[in-house]
Amino acid sequence: MSASTHQTKYSTPLQTDPLVTSYYVRNLEFWYGDFNALTNISLDVMPSAITAFIGPSGCGKSTFLRCMNRMNDLIPDTKVGGDMLLKGADIYSSGVDPVDLRRRVGMIFQQPNPFPQSIYDNVAYGPRLQGVKKKSDLDDIVEDSLKRANLWKEVKDILDKNGLAISGGQQQRLCIARVLAVQPEVLLMDEPCSAIDPTSVQKIEDLMAEIKDEVTIIIVTHNMQQAARVSDYTSFFLQEVAGEPAVLVESGKTSDIFTAPIDKRTEDYITGRFG
Amino acid sequence: MSENKNTVDKSQEDTLEAPSHASEQEVAAGKESLRTDADPSKKTLTHTPSVVMKELADTAAKREPVPEARPATKLQLVSRSTQIKEASLATLFFICAFLAVLGVGLIFAFVAWRAFPLLSEIGLWNFLTGTQWSVADNTFGALPFILGSFVVVGGSLILGVPLAVLTAVFMSEVASPRANAIIRPAIELLAGVPSVVVGFFGVVVVVPIVSALVGGAGFGPLTAWIVLSIMIMPTITTLSEDALNSIPMGIREASYAMGATKWQTIWKVVIPAARIGIIDATILGMGRAIGETMAVLMVVGNAPQLFAGISAPISTMTSQIVLEMGYSSGDHRTALFGLAAILFLISMSLVLTVRLLAREQTKKTKKPKKGGGA
Amino acid sequence: MSTKTNKNTQNANAEQRKTGMQVLKEMKEQHRESGSGLGRAHLNNRIAMGVLWGATVITIGLLAVILIYVGYHGLGVVLQDFPRFIFTWPEGVNAEGGIWPTIVATLYSTGLAMAISTPIAVLAAVYLAEYAKQGRIVKTIRFAADSLASVPSIVMGLFGLAFFVETLNIPLSMLAASLGLSLLMLPITMRATEEAIRAVPRYIRWGSYGMGATKWQTVSRVVLPTATPRIITGLILSLARAIGETAVVFLTMGIAINLPIIPTDSGRSMSVHLYLMAVEGINLPSAYGTAFLLLLIILALNLSARYISKRYSRIDNA
Predict the structure, then answer these.
(1) Please, what is the angle between helix C36-79 and helix C20-34, to 10°?
(2) Residue C19 pLDDT
(3) CB proximity C135 to B under 8 Å
(4) In the prediction, which pLDDT does A95 show?
(5) Neighbour tally for C284: CB within 10 Å
(6) Considering only alpha carbons, which residue of chain B is nearest residue A126?
């Protein structure tokens, strides 16, 4: 495997104790059928912080993100190698139920995808799955989650309206509220702001900062300014040659990556020389 | 725009074209714009020939003094006959399309016309509520057939809809593409099996089985339910599957990402989202069932009686028409046309219901005008 | 968290001091310890998948049973002294011999019906897809086509009898039957053609208009040829529908066994023959043979439609 000779550069050394990290990833490989999409990814995701994955499109960062809650299991003929530990537990060990994992790790998608149901039912979906039945409890959770998602003021009088009948930015915040309602430990965001209006982007960035103490956030973004603005840590992914697996070029504190990148390619990407 | 056109036409008129042609062209162009105004995407297309010519002529007119506008001569490439041909073809197409309207209108008019004497001879109320149907006594109460049709349709829906919807869910949510490559053609083929063949299958296979299970001759509602559910299942399955497939993948992913199992995702997200489509499918299946003739005729027993148990022969509107049309006359024939009119009205109202449901659906998820930046 | 204090004042009537979030948190911890919640979800999931499998197996099974049963009994009849059953006349009280006249009558009437309905349906679809502006007229036409498609075939047959036979004085014949059948085929072909035309990518049209082609030139030289495979698929399927149709033919063609030569000849179609054989019960072998041949024709038509649409789907997607 030629690509495994690749060496990721770290501005802060990797942790040795998995328990201080949220995600502890070592030598991760990923295949779509015969195609080796990711190789030799090692990185730490620190808890109570925002980590940004950046890189040109098609560089595997979304694929990597979908490995973190095993969404890739839904795609037939995919394979994962290496270690990925969440709070010290291997999420790919045979005893782990992906359904259970996804209840701990929430995900926000690029395209807002509310269910075609009422706003209330959208937010109550997760808690209901987990067995919350009492109306008053659900009311609580719905209100609480919508408030944390900076959406409550806009929708509190139209909770029975269809989730698709609000604007795109509001839909995305509704999706965030829906995920927050199940109190995830980690929140994965796959380019959450690429399809919505600037006001909503601002609100989403605000809420990320507000909730990051309770929820570890990982955000995939194309937007370098956004990564610099919101994240505490940044990882730069790159697929240099089409057909070859993507690699993690550099990872570290956002301030280090953006001010003193170690790798030339990181510098080139950040200064806008390619991508 | 029209002002602009006038000047252009005039410049052409002056130099090269017979005046009659210029106005002809203008009329044609105007007609075209009238027809296509509502559809902006088509507008540019339909206008292309005239617009292009006009623009070219326009620039030509600007470049050179009017008397010498020679290049424009060659630009009048679309001849008058072509334009007449275009217009007459459009009219022909419209007439063809209108034949569909005419067909439905004629069918309704004829059936209604032939059934009309009902009102004076038998009386609508007597017809709809009478339970006696006897050619010898010249009494024609259609209630046994109306109820018979609904009994047969109701039972077949109870049997067929769950099976069909579950199959559709399996195809759209569970089955691998390879499995679907077998299932889908099979469903389509089942839809293509003629009703007389299904009826025949009912006579030689289902009737003996039912007879052995519940006694009697085997002709009756239960047999009809089984046979008819086979008839309507492919329709409902195909349409439900379409409805399920049209649900965006994203909301399934969202549900999985929330830690839902496959079944929870199907039951709580996918099926509710496809609800209207599944209801549509059921309504259309119902339409198919109520109009189904041969299969029912062959197994239902054809006795003009009210429902008296799952194995007691009954009759339906469709089967009664086939059975008696051949030798009917007078009031009898009027009564049969009356049955046909009822069938027509029922199937029409089912189509209308589907339309209204669709309208309701779009109204519900329509976004506010500001729309967001999606 | 400040939001939670608001909650308590608002839900003062709730006796519990716990907020919904806390309830959920405790629930999650409980589940984690016992693993009960998910266990049930997975069990339900497994049961549901089993039910879905079962339903599909039953559905497919029904088709298989029909095909196998009719095939098993019919194949022998057809193959006995092959091809006697196909090419000879019924003998005695229709008790022996073949079904040749009914095959001819079926092909005759459906062929004629296709010849009548296809041009009208295709041109109507061209109008709807290419010419009409989206508005009330199109809505009316489309509604009429949908309605026509949903008119029960027996009503169609009755109309055929009352209009073509009794009003226009066409005898019970191939012609009357094919007029009735063409009403049946019209909406099916129309819908299929319209979809086929709409599936032609817009840029292909632009290419033609951009060269200064008129509308009809564009439609006839670019759009229709591109849509042809799908249109043919639609035609085949509506033909299959007409071949199996019984009620319309029963009322408009007559039931006497006769080899039709001119359009005003009467006859008996295969489907009507099957019906009469089945209810009279005097000659079940002939019924099996007829049912088998009918199925075979329809199977062949379905497969060829499938083949055509598959073969050209690459062009469509391009």
Answers:
(1) 70
(2) 80
(3) yes
(4) 83
(5) 16
(6) B258
Mutation target for A interface from B251, B262, B265, B370: give the one with most A CBs within 10 A: B251
The pLDDT of residue B5 is above 50? no
What pLDDT is attached to residue B60? 45
Residue spans of beta strands (DSSP E) within chain C:
90-91, 96-97
Q: Looking at per-residue confidence, does B332 or C313 come out higher?
A: B332
pLDDT above 70 covers what percent of chain C?
Answer: 90
C25 touches chain A (CB under 8 A): yes
The domain B126-364 having CATH identifier 1.20.120.80: the answer here is no
Q: How far is C23 from chain A (nearest CA, A)?
A: 7
Instruction: State pLDDT tens for residues C17-26.
Output: 578 788 888 8
Average pLDDT, chain C: 85
pLDDT of residue B243: 94
To the nearest whole Å, the CA of B282 is away from the closest chain A CA by 21
**Chain C residue nearest residue B201, CA to CA:** C66
**Any alpha helices (H) in B193-220, and if so which ranges?**
195-201, 207-214
- CB–CB contact C4 A137 (8 Å): no
- How many angstroms separate the CA of residue A32 from the nearest CA in chain C? 25
Helix (H, G, I), strand (E, B) or coil at C96: strand
**Model pLDDT, residue B33:** 41
CA–centroid distance for B29 within its chain: 35
Calpha distance B128→C232 (Å, rounded): 45
**For chain B, domain boundaries:** 2-78, 126-364
Q: Domain count of chain A?
A: 1
Name which residue leads in pLDDT, C183 or C318: C183
Q: How far is C24 from chain A (nearest CA, A)?
A: 7
In this complex, is the C-beta atom of B176 within 8 Å of any C-beta atom belonging to chain A?
A: yes
Mutate to test the interface with B, among C46, C63, C194, C301 (most CBs of B within 10 A): C63
The CA distance from A62 to A154, in Å, is 31
The answer to whether the CB atoms of B374 and A112 lie below 8 A apart is: yes
For residue A234, give every residue at least 6 positions away whose Cβ sits within 8 Å of its Cβ, in sequence order, or none.
A51, A52, A53, A54, A227, A251, A252, A253, A254, A257, A258
Reported as a single tens digit per residue, the pLDDT across B60-89 is 445 444 444 444 455 566 778 888 888 888
Looking at the complex, report in whole angstroms how far the Cα of residue C53 sits from the nearest Cα belonging to chain A: 19
Q: How many CB atoms lie within 10 A of CB B3?
A: 7
pTM of the model: 0.82
A12 within a domain of the structure (yes/no): no
Q: Cβ contact (<8 Å) for B170 and C55?
A: yes
Q: Tell me yes or no: is domain C85-317 CATH 3.20.20.70.
A: no
pLDDT at res. B271: 95
**What ipTM does the predicted assembly reach?**
0.88
On chain C, the residues whose CB falls within 8 A of the CB of B87 are none
The contacts of residue B60 (CB under 8 Å, 6+ apart) are: B69, B71, B72, B75
Chains in touch with B (≥3 Cβ pairs < 8 A): A, C
Contacts of B280 (CB under 8 A, 6+ apart): B239, B243, B354, B357, B358
